Amino acid sequence: MKASEIKYLSEKELETKLAELKQELFNLRFQLAVNQLDNPTRIKAVKKDIARIKTIQRQRELTAEN
């Protein structure tokens, strides 16, 4: 998911997407532990998407304070 796509999501959608990505990351890590992971680069992509969402949430939080 691109940052430009994330910017236009509502707070509720961001929270939902973040929960989904965290669950996916958990599942990917579990698959990695039991050697069933097909695409190990997906872990890195999911981590980056989580970071993007958290960054957008923090930016919105800071602009709301000002």
Q: What do these coordinates show?
A:
This protein is mainly α. It has one domain (3-65): Orthogonal Bundle (Helix Hairpins). Helix content is 79%, strand content 0%. The chain contains three helices and no strands. It has helices at 3-6, 11-33, 41-65. The longest helix is centred in the C-terminal third of the chain and has 25 residues, at 41-65. The mean pLDDT is 94.
- Secondary-structure arrangement, i.e. CATH architecture: Orthogonal Bundle
- Helical content (DSSP H or I, runs of 4+): over 70%
Number of strand elements? 0
What class would the helix/strand composition place it in? Answer: mainly alpha
Rg (CA only): 14 Å
Shape: elongated
Helix and strand sequence: HHH
Instruction: Report how far apart the termini are.
Output: 28 Å
Strand content: under 5%
Q: Pick out the low-confidence regions.
A: none
Q: Strand count, sense and closure of the main sheet?
A: none
CATH topology: Helix Hairpins
Q: Quick check: average pLDDT? A: 94
CATH class: Mainly Alpha
Number of domains: 1
- Count every helix, treating DSSP H or I runs of 4 or more residues as helices: 3
